[in-house]
């Protein structure tokens, strides 16, 4: 399996790293795009079966670690997707993610890479102008299954400790 | 009947031809005059939950809160005593602390001219005070104390200082507050915005008619949410609902499969209802709600979350949810609690998000027409203060108490 490693590695390895970094960056950007286009089932397919997807405020991340939610495994993601597709009552406009990958490093534990990205999400309100929906950071652990990179763990850390009223969408 | 009004009350002359205790004048959700009266008559005259002792365990620890537009500090002194005072420098008014919580190191120093106050709000020092001459009487510049008391570790303050003693004010709710919070500590807080009048959120905690329709995730998980349970008006505006979970079947799997177009196998990740479990939703007058329950009998199976709703205008509020865990619980239990306790809560949770939206829609819809002045809160016909889970005894209990605090302003036809 391709590992993302130190850039000072030998030339062929460096090329492999560059290819992996590009693939990983595409994965992170694709997750944002699928969320914005409400292609939630395809978004779900970017995660491993044993994935972990979590949301936490920066204040709580700094302190005891109280999460807004932690979805563990594909079933939990599927339940969230079902909610978004079928029974979330809130009328909402389109979101736009702007995601910037800051760092890709070998994972501390296990195979794959640890990816740190900043995000800003705007949302068009149904009858108003667009508003900032959320800003923060993704801490991802991504792995390659031999053919493609997938998200094994994602923690979305949101900067504000005050959430908007319509915050059930994918961050 | 509980909540009945005196003959001649304008609420008795409602178009719905119901006893005034069974209707709500919709202006209470829309009128700016009534909202201003609520700040003056309700939020300053009642005990307001502001925190838990576990959040301020050491000398110098403090919390800040805004109540009815008034910034307040709650701080622990060197002798261990908690005190509350206004978060405002007595010199020119700047706030003394801006963080939600922290440790002041024993004193609060104003960033503007460095006047310094101790953990009781007493003025300690004034830089270059000699320029004031002998006229500066420091004792006149202490930040006024705000009445504070605690119950079972929960910290309450009363702005006007004239509310009944806290024990008396909490009345029959004390037993349940104890059940919910005794031996527990705060794990953290999350806040979100309610685009609605604050009472709509509080009403929601006294209304268990809505879940089977509003919360479709629970409807499918619990096979219809036709749950038997209790609904009690505890008096004093407090209320209590208790109910067991229902068993789950295959409706949840079908629901998820239908919406996602994918096979869904295995037990719901949201959890299979525990047949031994029970859930309680209680409301403490006027703006505190506590959800708690127990599970399979293990010492740490119980859970508690507390929510306080504070208005910022007639049509907006901040909801703050406070998560609790057992003091000394095993690390694995604590970690699971930190990861799962809020999973259906807050505006990102698959249940509270529904309630948040319901309040928004009501706030807009309640302004539709003067010809639609009254809302019916008359579910439950048996006399007394208790009925079935889906009845509205607890709602009527709240508004009965609310009217006592709000007085004549509600009797005016012109708000």
Model description:
Chain B: Belongs to the bacterial ring-hydroxylating dioxygenase alpha subunit family. Chain B: Keywords: 2Fe-2S, Iron, Iron-sulfur, Metal-binding, Oxidoreductase. Chain B: GO terms for molecular function: 2 iron, 2 sulfur cluster binding; iron ion binding; oxidoreductase activity. The complex is a heterodimer of chains A (171) and B (415). Chain A is of the alpha+beta class and 171 residues long. Helix content of chain A is 29%, strand content 39%. The model of chain A has no long low-confidence stretch (mean pLDDT 89). In chain A, strand 3 and strand 4 form a beta hairpin. Chain A has a six-stranded mixed beta sheet with strand order 2-1-6-5-4-3. Chain A has a single domain, classed as Nuclear Transport Factor 2, Chain: A. Chain B has 415 residues and is an alpha+beta fold. Chain B folds into two domains: 107 residues, 3-layer Sandwich (Rieske Iron-sulfur Protein); 236 residues, Naphthalene 1,2-dioxygenase Alpha Subunit, Chain A, domain 1 (Alpha-Beta Complex), CATH 3.90.380.10. In chain B, 22% of the residues lie in helices and 28% in strands. Chain B contains ten helices and 20 strands. In chain B, strands 12-18-17-16-15-14-13-20 form an eight-stranded antiparallel beta sheet, with helices on both faces. In chain B, a hairpin with a 2-residue loop joins strand 17 and strand 18. The longest helix of chain B has 14 residues. The radius of gyration of chain B is 23 Å and the shape is globular. The relative contact order of chain B is 0.17. At the A-B interface, helix 2, strand 1, strand 2, helix 4 and strand 7 of A face strand 12, helix 7, helix 8 and helix 9 of B. Strand 7 of chain A pairs parallel with strand 12 of chain B, so a sheet runs across the interface.
């Amino acid at each position: 399996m391709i590992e993302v490693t130190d850039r000072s590695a030998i030339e062929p390895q460096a090329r492999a790293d560059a290819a992996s970094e590009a693939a990983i960056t595409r994965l992170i950007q694709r997750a944002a795009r699928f969320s914005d286009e409400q292609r939630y089932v395809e978004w779900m397919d970017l995660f491993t079966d044993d994935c972990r997807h979590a949301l936490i405020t920066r204040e709580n991340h700094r302190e005891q670690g109280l999460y807004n939610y932690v979805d563990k495994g594909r079933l939990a993601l599927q339940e969230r997707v079902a909610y978004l597709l079928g029974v979330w009552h809130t009328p909402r406009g389109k979101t736009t993610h702007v995601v910037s990958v800051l760092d890709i490093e070998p994972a501390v534990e296990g195979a794959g890479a640890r990816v740190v990205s900043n995000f800003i999400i705007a949302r068009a309100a149904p009858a108003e102008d667009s508003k900032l929906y959320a800003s923060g950071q993704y801490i991802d652990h991504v792995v390659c299954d031999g053919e493609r990179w997938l998200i094994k763990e994602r923690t979305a850390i949101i900067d504000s400790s005050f959430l908007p009223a319509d915050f059930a969408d994918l961050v | 009947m509980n909540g009945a009004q005196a003959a001649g009350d304008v609420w008795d002359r409602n178009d719905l031809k119901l006893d005034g205790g069974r209707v709500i004048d919709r202006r209470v959700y829309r009128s700016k005059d009534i909202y201003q009266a609520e700040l003056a008559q309700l939020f300053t005259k009642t005990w307001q939950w502001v925190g838990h002792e576990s959040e301020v365990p050491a000398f110098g620890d403090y919390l800040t809160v805004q109540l009815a537009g008034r910034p307040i500090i709650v701080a622990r002194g060197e002798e261990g005593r908690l005190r509350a005072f206004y978060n405002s420098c007595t010199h020119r008014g700047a706030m003394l602390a801006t963080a939600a919580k922290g440790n002041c190191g024993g004193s609060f120093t104003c960033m503007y001219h460095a006047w310094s106050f101790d953990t009781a709000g007493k003025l300690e020092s004034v830089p270059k005070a000699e320029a004031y001459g002998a006229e500066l009487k420091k004792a006149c510049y202490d930040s006024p104390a705000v009445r504070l008391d605690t119950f079972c570790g929960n910290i309450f303050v009363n702005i006007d200082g004239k509310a009944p003693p806290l024990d008396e004010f909490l009345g029959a709710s004390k037993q349940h507050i104890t059940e919910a919070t005794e031996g527990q500590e705060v794990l953290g807080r999350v806040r979100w915005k309610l685009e609605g009048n604050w009472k709509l959120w509080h009403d929601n905690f006294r209304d268990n008619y809505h879940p089977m329709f509003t919360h479709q995730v629970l409807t499918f998980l619990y096979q219809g949410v036709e749950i038997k349970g209790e609904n009690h008006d505890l008096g004093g505006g407090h209320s209590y609902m208790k109910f067991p979970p229902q068993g789950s079947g295959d409706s949840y799997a079908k629901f998820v499969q239908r919406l996602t177009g994918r096979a869904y196998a295995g037990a719901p990740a949201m959890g299979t209802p525990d047949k031994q479990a029970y859930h309680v939703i209680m409301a403490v007058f006027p703006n505190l709600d506590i959800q708690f329950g127990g599970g399979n009998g293990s010492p740490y199976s119980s859970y508690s979350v507390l929510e306080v709703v504070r208005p910022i205008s007639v049509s907006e509020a901040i909801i703050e949810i406070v998560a609790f865990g057992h003091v000394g619980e095993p690390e694995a239990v604590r970690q699971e609690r930190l990861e799962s306790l809020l999973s259906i809560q807050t505006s990102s949770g698959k249940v509270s998000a529904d309630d948040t939206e319901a309040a928004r829609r009501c706030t807009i819809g309640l302004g539709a027409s003067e010809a639609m002045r009254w809302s019916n809160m008359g579910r439950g016909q048996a006399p007394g203060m208790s009925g079935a889970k889906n009845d509205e005894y607890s709602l009527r209990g709240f508004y009965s108490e609310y009217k006592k605090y709000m007085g004549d302003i509600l009797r005016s036809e012109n708000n």
